[in-house]
Amino acid sequence: MEEVDGQVIQFVECESGLDIHKVVREDLDDDGRPKRTGTMWTASAHIITAVIGSGVLSLAWAVAQLGWVAGVASLLTYGCITFYTSNLLAECYRSPGTGKRNYTYMEAVKDNLGGKMNFACGMAQYANLNGLVVGYTVTAAISMVAIEKSNCFHRRGHEASCEVSHKPYMIGLGLFEIVLSQIPNIEQVWWLSIMASIMSFGYSSIGAGLAFAIMLSGHGKRTTVTGVEVGPGLTAARKMWRMFTALGDIAIAYSYSPVLIEVQDTLSSSKPEIKVMKKANMISVAATTVFYMMCGCLGYAAFGNSAPGNMLIGFGFYEPFWLIDLANIFIVLHLVGAYQVMAQPVFCEVESLCRRKWPKSEFVNREYPIKIGRRNLNFSINLFRLVWRTMYVVVATGLALALPFFNDLLALIGAVSFWPLTVYFPITMYISRKKINRATIRWFMLQFVNLLSLLIALAAACGSIEGLGEALRIIK
Fold it and tell me: Where does the record place the Amino acid transporter transmembrane domain (predicted)?
């Protein structure tokens, strides 16, 4: 690549081996799209926003079901597996030989494994993303309610009946997300991801800090090597289901593969994207594992075998109430950003399909720049984007309002989609790209990771189904 008369000339090698050249504008990337500006830090922020959700506060409960040995081993094992398979997936961003970019996870699967696998990937990926969007709406509303309840308990005592409706908060969050959803693409929500990442560290640190304070005060509850013990109120079968659910919670908590390729597509091409993405994977998974270990282990040490499902939302702590309120505010702000990180790939896919189907439609393609006086705000409105994204948020909010037990359903969706998206497709694409022969040591090792993850995903799905059945029985 060299500069001639103010233009960038990029030389490429065609299949015949002859050098040809094409003129590329300085403000465009090699694929003709606007120059990407993402860095290792913005990619890390996107990943941390996608991974560290308020579910980190339920890891104390998960460790309590498994005990010290299996709980800690699961946290470390799945951190290692996620880091490894994420690096395998990052290698699939560009096609071997041609160097063509794959803009989405589905394109990467189609490029490496063919059309049938592409369809299966799309089903798992978009079920996961759409489910998370609805789940985030439910969880953010629960955190907002927790703030009101915390203040009520502080005024009236811990035994007071402080019932608060979630519905107004869900509607309010939906209205706010309608506005944020007009941000055109995931690259432009980098500032929201950085804010959300800071918030996730904030509430995780508060939860871990409060648990550590209980330990120091000498009021920590009894813990065991094997976790919650079978006895009055807990049958052996129920213990098994809880262990399955806990394994699924830990595995799913690490998963960010559904948005990895889309995040990698935001990176600047000034450096090889795969190297930058692998560094972002390392930073993100390492930071995530540290916080998961802190919250899971300190929370279990503080609450013992009676650890609540969520240390902050479930009122494992009541005081200091202002700190609990602050932590729940952090959770809400984090989920506002995480909502966009998960929704943007869905928005992009639908809009790309519509632009290809109706390339001459002004409603679909025309951008209307926004100005104040003569000043251009570098922001535009597209009518199709405005209508379609508004409808999407309205439907997601409606589902959150209609399904009070949606988190149990979300756990099932996550359990079913975790194995194919985080483990199976990255490993299978890697075997195909590297032409790894069957029955070799490397092939057996990769398939062992694949099989282990499949078994845990099936166990987690069984636990989720049992939890969903329990939720339906309670409603009846």
Answer: 36-465
